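Obj.: predict assembly geometry.
Materials: sequence records (below).
Method: joint structure prediction, all chains together.
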Amino acid sequence: MTPKKILKYSYYPGCSLHASASEYDLSTRELFKALNIGLTEVPDWICCGATPAHNVDELLSLSLCAKNLELANKVDGDLAVACAACFSRLKFTQRTLEENDVKRTQVEKAINAPVKLDSHVKHLLEILARDLGLERLAAAVKKPLKGLKVACYYGCLLTRPPNVPNLDCVEAPTIMENVLHAVGAETVAWSHRMECCGANFTLSRPGVVIQLSNAILESAKAAGADCFMVACPLCHGNLDIRQKEIENVYNTSYGLPVFYMTQLVGMACGLTAEKLGLGALIVNPMPLLKEKQLL
Amino acid sequence: MLLSAETMDIDFVRKVEALSGTSVRRCFQCGKCSAGCPMATFMEHPPNRVVRLLQLGQWQRILAGRSIWYCASCETCSSRCPNKVHLASIMDALRKLSWDAEGPSKESYVQLANKLFLQNIRTYGRQYEMRLAAVFNVKSGQFLKDLMLGPKLITKGKLKMFHKKNKNMSEIEQIFSRIEEMRRNGEAP
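Observations (raw structure tokens):
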């Protein structure tokens, strides 16, 4: 057994985790506490700008992310990020400012501070799979998720843009499956792991989301999945909150609960439904969890 | 529009290349971007045609349409291009040029959503999701959009009625105003 290193991180939850994805925030904090991993929220963090900022104003997008990296530097440890979009934008900013002196100068002027790029930005998945390690994760399991067949849904921004997040292979990642296998769950092979759910069109053009997310739900169901695991609040909102509506539009029934990664891993580590915020999920996961005797 | 010397604007291509940091002219039209694009079905010009139109200087046709606003920024095109054309960055550059010029695009809902999202950052520091959705409905005249979802989201604690502003609002405002000033002085695109 390798000697235990003490893990601690600064934490950037992102806007959704303080509102529509509060169960992702809650389950992250509870899971990290259970695993003895330190997590300190970055004080006064601001919105990363997400897709709307880089869509029309790259300098603003880079500046907002650089400001967050500066704020995160005031807290000890690498930066842990929960939301796939925030993660992708923060990593994209680091990469761009490393490579482009002109943009770096502009951003430094905008935030009125020197840009330091030596800190590591890590998604929660990386922390569990690599920093903690799959062996130690497996050792912390109290109740393996035996018999649960999960469709791992990566969505777009955990692995893209190419060569930016460097979380895993850009076309065929396995980090989610590896984490789930370590906690005793089964994963299904399916076609839509990395297809877009429609993301922020949920506000402007929900019809887009209905169509794209339907294809994802249909594909997971056909592959025999019991449920989804996601690591992005927008993927979650589109698959979970809009699932009933999609079922109505396509006159079908999926009934697939959508879990955040920290909820499934937390369940395996023996955390209660309350601590994992399972009650906040729109598609009720309780019948499935009872059937599989996981709660 | 016929292709002629008058309608070919190659200067625009250079502008897009400078903004996006990627080559428009390296594309040889294999079509892989459009094949993998989840949004191509919603666009009048799928991604490979956007690039082809650009190469031919026909940018007005792109900016007048809705293709660029129907790009989801999923980055699949950029991941798969055999010539390493970063198409998602080209889309960003096209949207910025259209946005700055308050261009003639037919797609107004996506632009409204973007505008409100950015205003939210300037006013609150973080996204105030409830307000974002409510103001979008009012300004787009779709008062009943997603209304049925509201009560459920509120009982589940997913929609917060109130939102506290960040403590560092003055620093955030300065980021926005410094960028505006840099642009006035021609120091930033």
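Conclusions so far: Residues 109-124 of chain B form the longest helix (16 residues).
To do: check interface contacts against the pulldown list.
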